[in-house]
Amino acid sequence: MRLWSLHPAHLDQKGLVAWWREGLLAQAVLAGRTKGYTRHPQLERFRETSDPVAAIGAHLGHVQREASVRGYRFDAARILVPEPPEAVLDGAMALPPIEVTTGQLAFEWAHLGAKLAVRGPGRWAAGPVAHPGFVVVPGPIASWERP
Questions:
Q1: In the chain, at which end, N or C, are there fewer CB atoms within 10 A of the end residue's CB?
Q2: pLDDT score for 33
Q3: β-sheet bridge partners, residue 134
Q4: HSE toward the beta carbon, residue 117, CA cutoff 13 A
Q5: With contact defined as beta carbons under 8 Å apart, do 55 and 95 qualify?
Q6: 15-19, long-range: CB within 8 Å, 24+ apart, which pairs?
Q7: What is the pLDDT averaged over residues 48-57?
Q8: How much is the pLDDT for 122?
Q9: CA angle 103-109-113, nearest 5°?
Q10: E strand or H helix at 93, and its extent?
Q11: Segments in 36-144 forming alpha helices (H)
Q12: pTM for the whole thing?
């Protein structure tokens, strides 16, 4: 499972589809709808929020909107707790952003770069931008990451 801290615009079609699928699995885990993946380390940062299901819903909402921009049809109705429409329209966050460290962002950027070097480097060349649901703070790779 890879729930990127990078902006969804960085991913190619294959990566974006995988992110959506894995995000829906993460949502099911956080909502208590599945017995698998319950201890997956990438879920820690969502569990640390005041409302994990809403946090993953906001995360998925940004992925779904990027897919829509590209003409893909990711079913937004599958998001259990979507962001309020006014937050989406204003560009505001309904929830406080989750912190992501500079080290984590750099690690993910290199990881994605290795994937896109094979599949198509165009999206990777621009430089890393964080997912809108995250705020970048100084620090090392996240403790939950498995490099």
A1: C
A2: 95
A3: 98
A4: 6
A5: yes
A6: 15/112, 15/115, 15/116, 15/119, 16/63, 16/66, 16/67, 16/70, 16/72, 17/72, 19/63
A7: 94
A8: 63
A9: 150
A10: none
A11: 44-47, 52-69, 85-90, 102-119
A12: 0.88
